[in-house]
Amino acid sequence: MDIGGATADVHSACWGTPVAMDVPMLGLEEPFAKRTVEGDLGLRISAKSLMEVAQRNSLPRTLAMPLDTNQAWMRAEYLVSHPETLPHAQPEMELDLARAAAYLSMERHAGVLETVATHRGYEMVQRGKNLTDIKVLIGTGGVFRFGGQPSTVLEACLSDNFNPYSLRPKRPQLYLDGDYVLYAGGLLSTVYP
Question: What is the per-residue pLDDT across 110-128, written as a single tens digit (0 to 9) for each?
Fold first, then answer.
């Protein structure tokens, strides 16, 4: 998970097999290595669109944000026009934005269970990648490096009872790239595999 100023990126490296043998997959087979880039979920350049998406989508109560206030919208507009801004005066709101970005981007990246009508009646099917059993979840980027409570941002990616049909991770080990070095490792791997 890499939450930046313009995008929120999720990378997964697993097969994402069906949740059960009797649950068929719908759609194309998911790749082992998958990356999604959410251009509307960034914390600076995309702050206003993140707030709009968060308002349109119902979020768990634990992620509820006071986004309907004039103060919140003014702050988002300021962040869009001043992306270099660090959270000094309103760290709570920016923590809420980061948690919403983490939740929403993982929700889009992970698969989902759906009920569909078939000739045998209603059946459960899986659409997208099953991440429920991944072992490790790593947070990287400025919010995890400089944020006040980075572990709570990463925890927003996990499965919960709010959307039990989402195939988000259930109990992975959580790690923070506190030195913000993972991006360099990826770049170096092209030269030094």
Answer: 999 999 999 999 999 999 9
Element (H, E) at 8: strand 8-13
- The answer to whether residues 116 and 122 touch, using CB atoms and an 8 Å cutoff, is yes
Q: Per the structure block, which two tokens stand in for 38?
A: 């959410």
Residues pairing with 1 in the sheet: none
Beta bridge partners of 113: 126
- What are the residues whose beta carbons fall under 8 Å from the beta carbon of 6, sequence distance 6 or more? 39, 42, 44, 45, 46
Q: Are 156 and 99 in contact (CB under 8 A)?
A: yes
CB atoms within 10 A of CB 28: 7
**Tens digit of pLDDT for each residue in 124-179?**
999 999 999 999 999 998 888 888 788 999 999 999 988 999 999 999 999 999 88
pTM: 0.89
Please say whether the beta carbons of 140 and 177 come within 8 A: yes
